[in-house]
Amino acid sequence: MLEIRGLHASAGDTEILKGIDLTVEAGEVHAVMGPNGSGKSTLALVLAGHPAYKVTGGTVRLDGQDLLDLEPEERAQAGVFLAFQYPVEIAGVTNAYFLRAAYNALRKVRGQEELDPIDFLELLEEKLKLVGWGPEIMQRAVNSGFSGGEKKRNEILQMAVLEPRLAILDETDSGLDIDALRIVADGVNALRRPDRATVVVTHYQRLLNFIIPDFVHVLVDGRIVRSGGKDLALELEAKGYEWLTGEPEPQPA
Amino acid sequence: MADRGTGTATGVSARVAEGQRGRGAVGGLAGWTLPADRLGSRRRAALESFTATGFPTAKQEDWRFTPVTPIAMREWQVDGGEEGKRGRGEVGTDELAQLRFGADWHTLVFVDGEFRADLSHRPVLPAGVTVEPLGEALARDPELVERWFARIASSEVTPFSALNAAFARDGAVVRVAAGIEVPEPIQLLFVATPGSEGRAIQTRTILVIEPGARAQFIESYSAVGDATWFTNAVTEVRVGEQAWVEHTRIQRESRRAYHIGLTSVHQERDSHYRSFTLTAGGAIARHDLQARLAGENVETLLYGLYLGEGEQVVDNHTVIFHDHPSCRSWEVYKGILDGNSHAVFNGKVFVKPEAQKTDAKQTNRNLLLSAGARVDTKPQLEIFADDVKCTHGATVGRIDEIAYFYLQSRGISRGEAQRILTYAFAAEVVDEVASAPVREGLDRMVQARLGTRM
């Protein structure tokens, strides 16, 4: 479903991705792990079309379609969803409006009729249950004044509403306590389908106790240095990234 | 005592010529006559004041960015009493419905500067509340008008204020007696039509809210059709002790029109005045809002939203006079500029030496949507007291690329993302309007202008 071949990407003059090859088939969950600065978040952002990164080489295809040629909204319309590490706050726009605008944008592309606010609210009720929220969250401004955990839950809610073919979770576990982590993971698991795929980008093995991956890839300095099954994550947890990088991991400042 | 109205065409012209040798030009006032009413002496004094200064020029700091030359150099027609009465402007019922916020609220409608009883809606008001056109008020309660006309917005405030005091023939006069609460907003709708092509429309509105009273006002300047006219509107607001007032001013005139507006507010102790100013129309639109905090423990909240596009010039000047201790002023003006529009914001705050414990905050934020749009923003705080909290901040920026990306990553096109994020920027200040139906009406107006459907 997703084929990444020889992907190179830079931010400014700094090359961050130095030749990524990755194939993800429908129904699979892949975890991309790596130390700080390895490029794992960059990979997630490049797939979604983040404007700060420039692709300097390689190809990315989703169901045979060249993703790199598409605008971010066209990628979303093709079925890509990125759960942000730092979701953006939009004071002045309600969650309800934002989600409906997104949902209807996708329906429009598929030639379906737009849902009016009443019908949309009905659809939402079921999705809200998935993240353990009541309807009052929909009248709050998008992520505005949300706690870190609430923002991540909101990302999962958006994902539940938009039902992407390829969901990319960019360090969705960072800053979450164990209860929030469980809610987020339950949401992701509930959305698993044989025709959908998930790429989980994470620093820690912790999230993978809840979202069991089929494959684990370790990214070091812009390249995948090792791939394996779910046990690779446990091995990493036990041995640390030093095991693969050969040097102690730089601590965040 | 009533004066005779005596201004004549020749008298005015002579003074005009004299004025032209002085500072600014005074333009084509030839043929203008002073209204013949009880306010004659005050009108003559105002005309003296105007002819002494003439129209402001770009050399004056307060008018540096407002090109008034197109106003000053043109021969505007003006009502000259009965013989000058023009044909009535057409405003349809549907069109009027679009301009109203509440169909059942007490509403005075003025078309092309003239009160229209046939379009107004005047249900019974609580005892002690009067809402009348200027002529009616002069006939029924001349003392009230004489007491307040051109007192708060005196002729010294701006040359346009003087010009208006001399020539304004109509407008609204509202009195809310002490302790009375008016349950619903009072609407004052000033509508211009293509019948005003080439004309000066001058109205003066007086709002007197007595001690302990509560009232809400919508003052709206709008257009039915496009033409070039010159609106010179002045509003004087007196807020008595412990009174509470919400005042919403909307300007959505023709894109070919010139609009100069002045709102002067006088607040007595323990009063609360909050305003929301929406500026969306006009080729050149200028609004001056001046609030004098004339007693202790006054609260003044000034919110504004201005939307410019095409070649529009949108200028907001605000002045807050902190004359007494323990007052709070809170000001937030936001602008959204597209095309080649030019916005000006000037916010003055004066804190007198005796105004200790003043708490004043001013914010001006601008969003540029195009390469051609520009903003000149100037906070001006002059503080002569030492135990005060005064802050200000001004920003001019564009929509954050990361915010665009967030919306686009959800399948929303860049164009739609711009509309949503622009609306969000505006909604933050519209949300500050206290009255829910007024807030919702403003929200609909802003959405219609920005092309969103929330």
How is this structure best described in words?
The complex is a heterodimer of chains A (253) and B (454). Chain A has eight helices and twelve strands. With 253 residues, chain A is an alpha/beta fold. In chain A, the strands form three sheets. In chain A, strands 6-9-10-3-11-12 form a six-stranded mixed beta sheet, sandwiched between helices. Chain A has a four-stranded antiparallel beta sheet with strand order 2-1-4-5, with helices on one face. Chain A has a two-stranded antiparallel ribbon with strand order 7-8. The longest helix of chain A has 15 residues, at 95-109. Chain B is built from ten helices and 19 strands. In chain B, the strands form two sheets. Chain B has a ten-stranded mixed beta sheet, covered by helices on one side. Residues 1-24 of chain B have low confidence and may be disordered. Chains A and B meet through helix 2, strand 6, strand 7 and helix 3 of A and helix 8 and helix 9 of B.
